[in-house]
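pinning this so it doesn't scroll away 📌
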Amino acid sequence: MTFSVTPVSSTTGERDRFRISFAPLSLDEVYNLANDPANGAIVVMSGTVRQQTDGKPVLYLEYQVYEPMALAIFRQIAAEIRQRWMDTNRVIIHHRIGKLEIGEISVLVAVGCPHRAEAFEACRYAIDTLKHNAPIWKKEYWADGSSTWVSIGACEQTNANC
């Protein structure tokens, strides 16, 4: 099952895309969606499921989302990016939900801009803001049989490995 929202047009006519999906995410698709002839840079951030957190072996993750609000947050992030980095051409945010194995992509963020500095800054802003504000929760399943939910805002804690 895939949730997606109709592309959002900015005031300058560029298009942003947002998706929440149970299906695997595609780097090629996200890059192509961010591509624009006016870009001098496309920065893509790929978040993957790591094999350990704080030295503790992870078996897999499970992501859950409040989809309508998460997509609204994605749109808000894109709008904020366009206010701070006005030459931004494309903002793409795709997030996966459900059970993810080690090495699978959980989130892809791509930003296309005329210059690399603004593309890097905007992409970092997008992922950091998403991690703090989007209603997306992950449950880490540990090798010892235990599990722990990690909620939004957890990245704000000191020493949080988000």
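📌 and the second one:
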Amino acid sequence: MNQPLVRVSTGSRRWLVRVEDLQEVVPMMTLAQVEGQWGGCRGVLNLRGELIPVFDGNGPEAPLEPSRLILVLREAGGARVGLIVDEAHEVVFLPEQALAPRPVGGGRTRRMALVGEEVFSVLEPGEVAAHGG
């Protein structure tokens, strides 16, 4: 069975996001700054009364351009997290076996897939903070 994934990009980074993890895509908006905010956290999104920490795929110093998007992802356990990206492209359908774990060094692995001629990492919602820093 093929799995639907959204192809997203920011700067030179490209990811695949499982449609089941993607709650919604919202336009860039003002983020609240909170006491103790550090690392790659760009602020907190107030989305219909829910406070969602937002990280930037381009890093903590990237300009927050109005053309950028915030992906709202659901982590395991139900918490939501936001990731700012430059673009959300098309949905691609890949068989589960095409999303293979590959070693990336330091004893770590990443699930990767080939879409056309490009290699993409599958973005896990729990890793958003690491990619936004």
